User: What shape does this take?
Amino acid sequence: MSMDNFHTLTQLLDNAGCHYKIFDLGRRVAEIDVEQFKAVEDNRQPYPWPLQQHANLSISFWQENTPPWIWFLRLPLDERGLLKQAAVGDFIKYVIEAMGATLNTTPTEEEQEKLAANPYTFKPNDDKMAIFHAQIRQELSLSASHYYEHAQHFLSGELGWDKWQGIGLQGLADVCARMKQANNTTLLRKSLNHLPLTPLYALLGCLEHCELPDSLSSRIAERIETEIAAEEVDLFLVSALLRSLSGANNALLGQTLERVLARPALCHPEVMVAIAGRCWNGLATTETAGLFLLRLAETGDQTLFNQLFSDLVMLPILRGIMLQVLHSQANPALVEAIAKLQQQTRSQQP
Assistant: This one.
């Protein structure tokens, strides 16, 4: 097959006989089904989890008995959420120049630098990198990092809750990625109400990328209830707890969002960004989505309203709901924010 015959990354990988896994790293670190990704590459469906009109993803690929290569890619999407084919074609050219179409030659240092310096690669932040490595190693049945057992020991409470300084973020990520093993769910659930703030924030940052068993998500929801009932509410902690609940079942997530959105005082921009960035599955009814947009309008930050609305309406799961809310509003604050959004959209059109 000549270079011109490769129109998608999966064609290239399949032709080279590679095994591969694809993860989204834009919103939550989550695996994308290969058949679904092939449909995205063929423009048969939009990218499932766009962020700022881009697909931020990783492709890990390997051949028998070789360690995986990983590409971290940020590929542009059009206004319908479809992959821009020219960008994919460009990246394929970079790859073939560096590695050949068989993907089994190790690029020289110069070729590696050229491949790394192309405009489509990006470096995920440390938090996402830690949970991504934990998840991919667990998926490939590779051992956890050497921080894993120490983190388990700490989460059991036996070391003392104040002895967290030596706990690696990678260790916490490993425990979260291996939740179904070695009693880890119980360790996580029991530790939630004991952890000092620094390790608690680190743990919550890992949990936001995991699918949660009901016992753990219920405990997080209880903690949110406790925090929002306090005389002095720590909105940054509420925001982190909400983000960590993003992998809960949709019913619990929706109920929790309704409780938070029912109280305007809790709807700080930080909280609204947390909901839009991680908890969008909880906005899957017109009532909750409408209440979210109302609270967003009430912040008075039109730039934030425009940004979060534009991002949420790109999500295939929410597009219909957001457009429905857009055309059926009576609340003056929301009507005004929507009018300004539409005005800006019109002014940006060529």
